[in-house]
Amino acid sequence: MTSQELDAKYQKNLTAAINKMKKAKVDSTAIKVFANQYQALASGATGIIREDDILPLKNLPKLTDLKVDEKHARSALEKTAVIKLNGGLGTSMGLDKVKTLLPICDGKNFLDIMIEQILDTRRKTNARLPLIFMNSFRTQQDTFDYIEKYPELPVDDLPLDFFQNSNPKLLSEDLAPVVWSDNKELEWNPPGHGDIYPALWGSGILEKLIEQGFEFAFISNGDNLGAVADAKIAGWLSENNIPFAMEVCERSINDRKGGHLAIRKSDERVILRESSQTLSDEMEFFTDETRHRFFNTNNIWVNLKHLHNVLSETEGALELPFIRNVKNVDPSKPNSPEVVQLESAMGAAIEIFAGATAIEVPRARFMPVKTTNELLLMRSDVFEIGKDFIMVQKIRKLPKIELDSRYYKFINDFDKRFKTVPSLKDATSFRVEGEHIFDKPMKITGDAHITD
User: Which domain holds residue 169?
Assistant: First the structure.
C-alpha cells in the first residue's frame, strides 16, 4: 500500500470519526482538538518523549518559603475561582455513580468535604470563591441531586458546572471509529483532563469568569481532598504575573508511576512526561525518583486572561501533546477489539505558556483516593476532618496498605468485608491476603500481615 493510499484511508476514517462526533453533538472545539491529534497519530507521531531529549528539573520554589503580602494574597483569592474535575465514575473501584459521592470520613463524602472547605474559606475571607464542576453526562445529575442540600453554594449567575467532551475510540488496525453494539457507550472515551481547556472555551465559562472580574482558576481532581484554594499561591501568581503554575511534590519510591516534570532541551521549556509517553526500555529513567524528583499533583493554577489569549490564537484548540492509550474496547473483555484512545493531560499545558512554572507543596495538598487501599487509610484513625474541613494526617508517615485485589478491589466487596475499620495510626504496613471479615475493633501495630 502506497503512502498516498494510506493517507486516503486515514482521511476517510477521520471523516467518519468527525461525523460521529457531530451526530453526538460534541462541541466543535473538541472536534478540532481530536482532529489535530488524529492527524498527528496517523502521520506517525507517537507522543513519546525520549530521555535523551530532556533534562531533570532541579530546584523549585517551595510554598513554605513564599513571602507574599497578606493583603495582596487576600485580594488575589477574591479573584479566584475553583474548578473540580468531577467526570469520573470510579469504575476502577467498581462504582457506577459519580466517585465523589463515596463516603470518606465522619459520614461525609468528597462533595461534602470540598464544599465545606469552600464555604469555610468564604466565611473567613469574604471571597466569592465560586466552585464549578467539570462534569460528564454520567455524573451531572447525581452531583446536582446531592448538592441541593447546599443552597448557598452558587455565586451570582455563574453556572455550577460545564461538561467534559468525549472522543470516539479508534480501532488500532486502521484508526476507524469502533462500533460496539453490545454497549454503545463503550465506543467513547474521556479525552483526558487536558480537555478542560477546550471545554472552558466552548462552554463560554472562561469568558463569563473574566467578565465577572475573576483572574485566576485553581483546578484540581475531585478525589483530592488536600487540594484547597490557597491565598498565598494566588498572591504569588499575582505578584509575579505567572500565567500558569503546577503544584508538585518531591517523589518517593511510591510515586514512580505519576507523571514527572523535566526540561526539554530544544527550547528549555518545562514539560510534563507521563508513563504512557515513555519508551518501555526507558522506564528505568522515568521511575527513578532521584533523577526526576518532582511529580505532578494535578493541582493547577492558571491566569484566566493569559489562558484566554492563548486559546484565542487557536480558537480554543490548545495544542497539547497527545497520549496514545491502547486498551480493549470493553475493558472487562480482554478478547474484545484493541482500540486507541486519544487523550491529553491538563498539566501538559505548562509547556504552552511562556513563563509557566511549578511550585513544590507539602504532601498534605495531595491526598488522592484511587484505590480501596487509600480509601481504607482515609476512613481510619490516620486521618480526621479539621476545624477548617481540611483532612488532617495525624501521623508523620502513612503505613503501606496492600489489600488482596480478589476480595477488596471493588467498593461493594470492600464494604462487605470491612464492616469496622481497624486502627492504623500505629501501623507501619498492613497487608491482607485472602478473604477476611473485619467486623470487630482491631488495632494494627508495626508490620501486620494477615494471610489465608
Answer: 3-365
**Is the domain of 343 the same as that of 388?**
no
Question: For residue 349, what are the CA distances in angstroms to 222, 265, 306?
Answer: 20, 17, 12
Same domain (yes/no): 344, 381:
no
Q: What's 302's domain CATH number?
A: 3.90.550.10
Residues whose CB is less than 8 angstroms from the CB of residue 385 and which lie 6 or more positions away in sequence, other chains included: 105, 106, 108, 113, 391, 392
pLDDT tens for residues 124-183? Answer: 999 999 999 999 988 999 999 999 999 999 999 999 999 999 999 999 999 999 999 999
Q: Which of 365, 398, 417 is the last residue of a domain?
A: 365
Q: Are both 341 and 381 inside the same structural domain? A: no
Say what percent of the chain tops pLDDT 90: 84
How far apart are alpha carbons 142 and 162 in whole angstroms? 14
For the range 70-73, what are the long-range contacts, defined as Cβ-Cβ under 8 Å and sequence gap of 24 or more?
A: 72/235, 72/238, 72/239, 73/231, 73/232, 73/234, 73/235, 73/236
Domain count, the chain: 2
Res. 3: pLDDT tops 50: no
Pseudo-torsion of CA 425, 430, 436, 437, nearest 10°?
10
The residue from 340, 365, 390 where one domain ends is 365
C-beta of residue 168 within 8 angstroms of C-beta of residue 194: no
10 Å CB burial of residue 319 (0-12, 13-18, 19+) is: middle
pLDDT digits (tens, 9 = 90+) for 295-305: 999 999 999 99
In this structure, what C-alpha cell is assigned to residue 5? 493510499
Termini Cα distance of the chain: 57
Q: Per-residue confidence at 4, pLDDT binned at 50, 70, 90?
A: very low
Contact of 229 with 129, CB cutoff 8 Å: yes
Q: Residue type at 302?
A: V
- Residue 333 sits in the same domain as residue 421: no
Q: Is the pTM of this model over 0.90?
A: yes
CATH code where residue 406 lies: 2.160.10.10
Res 6: pLDDT = 52
- Residue 34 to residue 317: CA distance in whole angstroms: 9
